[in-house]
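Run log, item B.
One chain of 116 residues. Sequence copied directly from the ordering sheet:
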Amino acid sequence: MGTGELAGLYAKFGDVLNDTFKNWWREHGYYLFAEERKPLLLKELSDPSEWDSNWNKEHAMVVVVPLDIPKRYLQGFFARLLKQRHGGKQGRKALSDEDASTAQFPLHRNFSIETL
């Protein structure tokens, strides 16, 4: 493998010349370019101990929902609340967003002949 200041990079990517892409991808590529799963899931907390201290106002919202209120009222309440708090972006962030990728080696959608 490589030596010098790029030895770590060569070790991560492995042998890219003498293997099929399929084998290389299974052994190295998948782990280098995979996005980490988001730890925050939509769920009901049944106990205060389930609270994650990493949650903050920018990434999560805590709402108490009295279950004796009509569904129609709750739906309207949630719609107004989301309109205020949610950025309104559909889908996941674009790869061009600075902090969107969690991969070791983020993929870029825009390329040129020179970068190939």
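Observations after the first pass:
- The mean pLDDT is 80.
- The radius of gyration is 22 Å.
Flagged for discussion on Thursday.
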